[in-house]
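// run 5 | inverse folding | seed 20
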């Protein structure tokens, strides 16, 4: 049976078989990233970024990918509604307007879905209310995601809007991995548990790693290291997440660009009592003034490595702390999985920093882990193995593609 959707602007219906495009929106507090994809061949038709929304220096950069040069707009863009309308105008100029019958759905990245949303979900009023109820556990992200959804619904009320949640992939974690060891009643009353983030990336990369190895996803155990300005690790057994490093919020886990990662919770009490810092000040310290930037003043791994090579002691210590934390998680997740078939690096640092990959696995030969120096030095946008031919455990670099993952999940939901 052919799926049909009503188009109130035309007074009729159109076949979903004719609609093969998905617009992916990633709405931040002051930015909107967007990509339009053709799901027949999973190709990108256009990408764009609207940044500094609400400021006089707002900027939109739009890039059509099927011919044409990037275009830029500058000048104040007041809010997300104006930002999305501006993006729609740029798409229309390329013949890719939001009113096109070829547009099947709009997929939205939503950071926190709690336990209720374990799969991509068509947005209804009730779904939107539930995402709003999760704002206390994602105060920096969910409000912006909600704004993007509301704006897109207003522009295309006839079109399916699909929420794809960063936390969804991690809902397969067993209770003994997801629970914190605090009073159960308090935890349940306030939704305190490990949720994990970067889920679309971990899902995409773990699946692509199995393809790279030429094995079914169900047969492969993978440790995924998503290393960007935000960083997270996951243990994936047979395509299902069994452990992840981020917790109730994205603060827990690895050392990141500006986040501390794992820390004794009593540090917060100590800072409040001894330093007289407020809760908000401690929040800013741990989320925005810690990690690599707190240790050495830089959160760009390229600059840190340049300083390390020049003998800078602060940069060297920051790098060593970063690597030490990575090794701890690789070792811990090896124990959790029992058998590891691959360790895979992804995201900006993971894909581009050969020194990080080499250092993270140095000394782990007893785990069957090693990096081939020549393979590791190769720069490529393609998935690739960087371990020696005879390695017991594969080491891979797999570029992530969260937008494609969101588009794929969105399209599959509305087309089935």
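// decoded
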């Amino acid at each position: 049976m052919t799926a049909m959707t009503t188009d109130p602007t035309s007074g009729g219906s159109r076949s979903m078989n004719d609609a093969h495009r998905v617009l992916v929106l990633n709405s931040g507090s002051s930015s909107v990233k967007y990509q339009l994809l053709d799901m027949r061949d999973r190709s990108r038709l256009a990408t764009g970024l609207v940044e500094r929304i609400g400021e006089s220096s707002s900027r939109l950069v739009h890039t059509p990918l099927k011919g044409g040069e990037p275009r830029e707009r500058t000048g104040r863009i007041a809010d997300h509604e104006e930002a999305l309308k501006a993006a729609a105008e740029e798409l229309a100029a390329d013949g890719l307007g939001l009113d096109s019958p070829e547009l099947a759905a709009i997929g939205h990245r939503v950071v926190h879905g709690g336990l209720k949303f374990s799969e991509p979900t068509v947005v209804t009023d009730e779904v939107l209310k539930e995402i709003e109820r999760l704002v206390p556990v994602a105060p920096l992200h969910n409000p912006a995601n909600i704004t993007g959804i509301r704006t897109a619904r207003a522009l295309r009320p006839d079109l399916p809007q699909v929420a794809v949640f960063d936390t969804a992939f991690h809902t397969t974690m067993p209770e003994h991995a997801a629970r914190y060891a605090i009073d159960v009643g308090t935890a349940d009353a306030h939704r305190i548990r490990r949720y994990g983030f970067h889920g679309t990336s971990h899902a995409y990369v773990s699946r692509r790693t199995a393809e790279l190895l030429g094995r079914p996803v169900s047969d492969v155990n993978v440790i995924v290291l998503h290393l960007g300005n935000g960083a997270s690790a996951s243990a994936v057994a047979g395509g299902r997440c069994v452990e992840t490093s981020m917790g109730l919020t994205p603060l827990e886990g690895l050392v990141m660009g500006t986040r501390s990662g794992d820390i004794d919770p009593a540090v917060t009490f100590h800072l409040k009592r001894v330093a007289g810092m407020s809760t908000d000040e401690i929040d800013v310290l741990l989320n925005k003034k810690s990690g690599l930037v707190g240790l050495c003043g830089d959160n760009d791994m390229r600059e840190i490595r340049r300083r390390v090579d020049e003998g800078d002691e602060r940069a060297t210590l920051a790098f060593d702390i970063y690597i030490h934390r990575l090794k701890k998680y690789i070792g811990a997740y090896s124990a959790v999985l029992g058998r590891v078939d691959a360790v895979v690096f992804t995201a900006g640092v993971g894909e581009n920093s050969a020194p990080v990959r080499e250092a993270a696995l140095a000394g782990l030969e007893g785990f069957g882990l090693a990096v081939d120096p020549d393979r590791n030095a190769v720069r490529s946008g393609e998935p690739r193995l960087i371990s020696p031919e005879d390695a017991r455990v594969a080491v891979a670099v797999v570029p992530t593609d969260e937008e494609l993952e969101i588009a794929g999940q969105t399209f599959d939901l509305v087309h089935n």
